[in-house]
Amino acid sequence: MRAVKRLVFATCLVVVSTILYIRRSGQPGPKLGAYAPACHAGPHPIDGVITRAGKRWDALRLEETISIDDAAAAYRKRRERHPPPGFGAWYRHAKASGAVIVEDFFDQIYNDLEPFWGLDVNTLLARVAVFPDVLTVRNGSVQDVPNEFFRTKIWVEMMSKIPDLPDMDIALNRLDEARVIAPASEIDATLMAASKRRKETMKRPNNSFHETMQQGSSTSSSHVIWNTGMYELRSAIRASCPTPYFVSLPSHAIGSDTTIYLENTIAAKDICHNLELFDQHGALIEPATVDFTTTLFPIFTGSKLPAYNDIVIPEPSYYSDDPSFTGKSFGIDWSTYYPWKTKINGLVWRGGSTGGAAHDNNWKQFHRQRLISRLNASEYDESVYPARPKDERFADWLASVTNVAFTRLFCGDQKTAEDCPSMASRFTIAKPIKMASQYRWKYLPDTDGNSISERFRAFLLSNSAPIKASIFDDWQDHRLIAWKHYIPMRITYNELHDLMAYFLGYDKTCPHDAEGEKIAHEGREWAEKVLRKEDMVIYLHRVLLEYARVMNPERDRLGFVSDLS
C-alpha cells in the first residue's frame, strides 16, 4: 500500500513539475504594437488575402456530400469515371466515423494514380513484385508485412481498421525521400492513354473485384534500375519537367503565383514553374538519401516533391501518438492549454538542421539554415540572405519577437557539423524546447525537414497559428485553405518579415492580433473535423480501392453503379 502511495505521489510530483516547467519556459514577448507607436490603422493587403480565403472556404463547404448518391455523382463529375467497387462500403465507413466528405479532398489520389491507367497491368504487377518492401493483402486483411520499420508498422495499423480490403500487393517506401521520377514525355504518354481508357469505364461495369489479384505474366517487364547518384537525380528531376521550362530561363525565374503574399500554395510548389527552388531547398540541392528510379511503377510514400510519381498516403508520424509529434505528455493536451491572450507575442522554432546532405559549400542555400538566419537578429547576414535593410531598431524588434535556434547541426551524412566549420561558426546550438512548451507562443513557423514537417498537424490542432512553408505534396493539402486555417509563406521566406509585422506590429504597420487569433481558432476547429486519425484511415481506404482497381486486369470493367439502378 505504501509503495502504491509513493508511486502516486511521485507521478503527481512529475506532472506538477512539468506544468511549472512549461509555464516558465520562454520569456514574455513585447507588448503588442511596442515597435509600431505611430502605425497606420488603414487597410492592409493581407486583409484582402484573408477575405479571399474566406470566400474559397465558403465555396468548398458547399461541395460537401450528404448521401451516397450525392457522393457518387460528385465522383463521376470530377473524375469522369464510375467510382471503384467498394465505394458504397467506403462511404458507409466514412459516415460512420463522422467524416466530412468533399470530393475535392481526394484530388491528390487522382493526380498520383492517373498515369498508371496508361500502363499495362501485367507490367505494373511485375514491377511491384520485385520491390523489396511489399505488403500483401489477401481475403480482406494484411497477411505479409515487409520489414517492420516505423512507417510500415503504422501503415499496417491503419489498414487493420479498413473493412473488406480487396486483394493487392503494395510497395511501401520506408525512406523520407520519394522514389519514382518518370520523364515528362512518359507521363504525357500515359495520361493520354489513360484519357482514352476513361470512356470505357463509363459503360455499365462490374461492381466487384476478382477474388484474388492476378500476377504479372512471365513476359511482363519487371526491370527496374535504381540510381544513387546526384548527377542522375538532377537530370531526372529536370527531365520530369516539359523541355521549354529549362530553355534560357534564369535560376530566379518567377513562378505561377506572383502575388506579394502566397495564396496559390499548389502553384508555389511546382518545381517546373519555380526554378529558383533548385537553389533554395535541400531536397533539390542534395537530399539526405538518393535512391530512385525513372521507371514508372506504383510505390506508396508519406510525401513527395510534385515532380515525383509516388502515391501519397498519410505520413505515419501524423497518426502516431508519440509526444514528439503531438506535444502531449502525462495525459495532458498542451496544445490548447494556454489562452491566446496569455501567449507570448512572437514565434518560436526548434529543430535540427535536417533537410538534406549539407556541406561547407552549400549549406547557406538550405531551407532550414535560411529560416534561422532570416529570423535570428544576431546571426542575420544581409549579404547572404537579402531582405529588408538591416538597422538596429529592426534587429531589436526581431530579437524581441523570435526564439529560434538549431538544437543540432548535421553535415553531410554525419550527425555533427565538424566537416562544416563555416556552418558551425554561424549558428549557436540551443537547448530543445518541448512541443508542449512551444504552445506558449502565438505563432509557430513550420518548414520542411528531409520531407514534410512531422509537426504540422499538431500545430494545426493547437490554438497557436502555424506559419507554413513547404514544397512537398501531403495527403491533407486539399483539405486546408491557406489564410483560413494557417498562414502560408514561400520557401524563399521573402515575405516572412512582412507577415510578422502584420500580425505583431512594426514601424508603420499596426498589429493584427485578432486576425492571428482567428486563423489559429478556425484552423484548429477545422483540423478537429477533417484531420482526425479516422480521416487518415478513410483517405487510405479510398486510395487502396482505387489502387486495387488500377492494378486489376479487368479494371476497365470495374466500377460502382449501385446508385444508378
TrEMBL record:
<dbReference type="InterPro" id="IPR051091">
    <property type="entry name" value="O-Glucosyltr/Glycosyltrsf_90"/>
</dbReference>
<feature type="domain" description="Glycosyl transferase CAP10">
    <location>
        <begin position="275"/>
        <end position="554"/>
    </location>
</feature>
<protein>
    <recommendedName>
        <fullName>Glycosyl transferase CAP10 domain-containing protein</fullName>
    </recommendedName>
</protein>
<dbReference type="Pfam" id="PF05686">
    <property type="entry name" value="Glyco_transf_90"/>
</dbReference>
<dbReference type="InterPro" id="IPR006598">
    <property type="entry name" value="CAP10"/>
</dbReference>
